[in-house]
């Protein structure tokens, strides 16, 4: 069913099969393209798979997307969550999810988006004054461009998230959020574990980044398959020992120590938009662990629906921007003059490699020709 443009491989293992599709033309062009920090394919997938769950939904949930025009307006305002109890994005196809349970502002003037709270806060100095949507957009962009971020803190989201413990460990490092997590001292853990779905989800250790993995290189099929089987079997073996310990009278707070880091945990997480952008910039980035990136992209899919103007500015001025050191500015001048990457006074090998990567993005030079 694939055209000749696609190289495809179909692998069957046990009850699972995976299809790997590589667009060979894109692969060839990849080296000439600037790196794109946001994984657009994944983001689009999450955006299109937001489930809008209504408070009074019957057993079968209505997942059709309500729109701002279709919800009632009270006193000139409509509900930013479009009359829904929660917006849910499933993340790993297993137990993981990110669900919006509340947003501030919740009530939004008809014809505007929740971004209006940013300009509302920013304009306090000048008195109320009704402004047009385009003037509001210009102000949001100005504030974001000039790092005048306190008005952005006047927007907040509250999420209910479920993720593997090893993702939560990275996520919790962001100290500016308010968190309340499931307590394994108070309650029994559930036998819910994250295990890579297919062999193509098992990534190779990166040779260039000691912390990272290779996204386009895969470990040998049998090695990956054995790893998945082991991860699943060992998780349930550990869970059985955990249950035996509880049944034997061991306290919940101690018994949990035999459980692996792929067990699922959950929390409520509340954060303002400014600090959320910082979290997203770090965790949607290609340097973040792939599993963590997936959660960050799911959060961003929700945030984009609520705050499209601020997100546009975030992409333009933060995600799509490149920060240069003084040495890099000098090297850039030299590069423009020579029409190829020059290194000016950059002598440190690591700095040279970092600059080369940025230069390729800025000058759109082919990395292979350097
Ligand atoms: C790719 C990647 C790899 C990482 N690798 C490691 C690792 O190997 N080991 C490890 O331990 N961590 C690691 N981290 C975590 C990282 O060091 C940060 O702790 C984490 O990203 C949170 O960043 P933050 O402190 O800027 O964010 P937040 O905690 O969300 O804080 C936001 C901002 O608020 C300010 N702030 C908050 N609290 C304080 C404070 N107490 N004092 C001063 N300013 C404050 C800072 O300006 C901060 O940038 C990694 C993170 C990433 C993205």
- The radius of gyration computed from the alpha-carbon positions, rounded to a whole number of angstroms, is 24 Å
Main β sheet profile: 6 strands, antiparallel
> What would the average pLDDT be, to the nearest integer?
84
Decide which structural class fits the backbone: alpha+beta
Fraction of helical residues: 25-40%
Chemical compounds bound to the protein: flavin-adenine dinucleotide
Distinct helical segment count: 12
How far apart are the first and last residues' alpha carbons, in Å?
38 Å
Tell me how many strands there are.
Answer: 12
Low-confidence runs of at least 5 consecutive residues: 1-36
Order of helices and strands: EEHHEEEEEHHEHEEEHHEHHHHH
CA-based shape: flat
Walk across the major sheet and give the strand order: 3-5-6-8-12-9
């Amino acid at each position: 069913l694939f055209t000749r443009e696609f190289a495809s491989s179909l692998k069957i293992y046990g009850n699972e099969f995976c299809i790997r599709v590589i667009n060979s033309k894109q692969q060839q062009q990849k080296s000439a393209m600037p790196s794109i920090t946001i994984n657009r394919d994944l983001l689009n997938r999450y955006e299109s798979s937001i489930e809008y769950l209504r408070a009074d939904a019957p057993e079968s949930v209505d997942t059709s997307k309500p729109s701002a025009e279709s919800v009632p307006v009270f006193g000139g305002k409509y509900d930013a969550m479009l009359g829904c109890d929660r917006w849910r994005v499933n993340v790993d196809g297993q137990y993981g999810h990110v669900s919006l349970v509340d947003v501030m502002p919740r009530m939004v003037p008809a014809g505007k988006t929740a971004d209006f709270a940013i300009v509302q806060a920013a304009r306090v100095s000048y008195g109320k004054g009704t402004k047009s949507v385009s003037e509001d957009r210009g102000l949001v962009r100005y504030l974001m461009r000039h790092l005048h971020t306190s008005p952005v803190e006047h927007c907040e989201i509250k999420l209910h998230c479920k993720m593997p413990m090893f993702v939560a460990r990275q996520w919790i490092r962001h100290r500016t959020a308010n968190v309340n997590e499931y307590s394994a001292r108070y309650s029994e853990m559930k036998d819910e574990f994250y295990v890579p779905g297919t062999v193509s989800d098992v990534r190779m250790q990166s040779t260039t980044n000691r912390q990272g993995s290779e996204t386009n290189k895969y470990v040998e099929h049998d090695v990956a398959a054995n790893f998945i089987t082991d991860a699943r079997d060992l998780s349930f073996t550990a869970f059985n020992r955990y249950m035996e310990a509880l049944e034997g009278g061991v306290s919940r707070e101690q018994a949990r120590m035999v459980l692996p880091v792929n067990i699922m945990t959950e929390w409520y997480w509340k954060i303002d938009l400014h600090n959320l952008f910082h979290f997203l910039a770090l965790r949607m980035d290609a340097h973040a662990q792939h599993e963590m990136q997936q959660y960050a992209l799911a959060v961003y899919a929700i945030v984009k629906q609520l705050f499209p103007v601020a997100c546009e500015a975030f992409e333009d001025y933060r995600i799509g921007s490149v920060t240069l050191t003084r040495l890099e500015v000098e090297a850039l001048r030299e590069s423009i003059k020579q029409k190829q990457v020059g290194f000016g006074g950059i002598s440190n090998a690591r700095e040279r490699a970092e600059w080369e990567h940025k230069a390729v993005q800025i000058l759109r030079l082919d990395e292979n020709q350097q």
